[in-house]
Each structure stands twice: as C-alpha cells, then as structure tokens.
Design brief:
The complex is a heterodimer of chains A (102) and B (130).
Chain A: H1 2-24, E1 25-26, H2 28-31, H3 39-52, H4 54-83, H5 89-101
Chain B: E1 4-5, H1 8-12, H2 15-39, H3 41-45, H4 54-71, H5 79-108, H6 115-127
Helix pairs in contact in B: 4-5
Classes of the chains: A mainly alpha (102), B mainly alpha (130).
Chain lengths: 102, 130
Amino acid sequence: MLQYLFRFLVGGTIVSLFACLGDVLEPKSFAGLFGAAPLVALATLGLTIVADGKAYAALESRSMIVGAASFVVYTALCTWLMLRKKINAAPATIATSSCGWR
Amino acid sequence: MNISFNLGALAKAKWYECLVPFAFGGAITVAAGILAKYFGPVFGGLFLAIPAIFPASATLVGKHETDRKKKAGVATSSRGRQAAAVDAAGVALGSVGLAGFALTVRQLLPLCNSALVFLQQRRSGSRSPS
C-alpha cells in the first residue's frame, strides 16, 4: 500500500511539473512536445528496477515502444479532428481515446 | 522558431487546473503499476506510454485561448480549437521521441549498471543465505 502511495506522489509531482512547463512555454507547438514526455515511465521505471530488476523493466520498455507508436496515431488523429472536422479539444481527445480502447 | 517563457500563465492558472494533473498523473502511475503486477510486464509496459497530461493540457490550452479572445471582445472564435490542434501536433512529434526513449531504455538497460540496479543487487544479496 505504501508503495502505491509513493507511486501516486511521484507520478503526480512529475506530471504537474511537466504540465506547468507546458503552460509557460511559447509557442504551443513546442510546448506540446512536453505533452508526450515519458512521465509515467520516468515515475515508474526507477521504482520497477528497484522492486523487480532490470530484465523486468527492459521488458516493459519493449512494450512501451508499441504504446508510443499508438500514441503517435492517437495524437495525429486528434489533430486531424480538431483542424479538419472542427471538433473541440475535449470531445476530440476523449472520443479518440475511447475508440482506441474498443 | 522563437522559444519563450510566459510565467504570467502560471499566475492565471486556477487551483483546480494544478490539482487535476497531479491527481490524474498519480492515478495513472498507480494504475500502470497495478496492471504490470497483475497482467505482467508485457501488458503493463503498454501503459508507460499513456498520454498522462495530453487530454487535460489540450483542453486547457483551447480554453485559455478562447477566454483570451472573449476578453478581447471576440465572442465566438476558432482560435482555441486551433491552438489545441497545434499543441496536439507538437505532442505527435514528441511521441516519436517517446518511442526513441523506450528503444534506448530497452537496449541500454540490460547493459548498464545504474545506481538503482546496485540497490536491487543489495536487496537480493541481503535475502540470500550467504
């Protein structure tokens, strides 16, 4: 339980810091790069190496490559929906992620 | 491209705009850990690339730009949506970097002897009978 609380605090802090960085940077196309920062990975991999070892973390990283590839498709689709189909940000991002899960 | 800092954006942020990324990021980090524990590292690893702040940040970028236009006297504008779309395009580029990060970690982690790995070895050593 304590491990999960620690994960929550570390993950929340790192994500908040990057969200602040994205807020203050201009232009937004550059600030957007930080939206894809490996935040969950940064928060998780160190803890995973300590708890389960290098081989386990390396295996997770291999799957992360596939996850990142699908993230490229997801964000490209969101951009297309907002620019071409004129759908607002919240419905575009949420609807696209819902389709991905199905 | 001229890159600049606009620290005034932080002063304008409301308290819930700071709380949401913290709660959301923390929850996703915990969820990724639980999924890896119960379904194994291959499935759990997929969630390391989860877009932790993208939906929230794209929505906030759009909202801030729309509010700015409303203050300037423009009632309806597509500026918010366009700003969010540009932000999303930046995230798409960043995702390629994310894949590069994952590939680098995958290749180097088995070879490197980091301080964290040393900690793991100490833990294992303290458990062994010798």
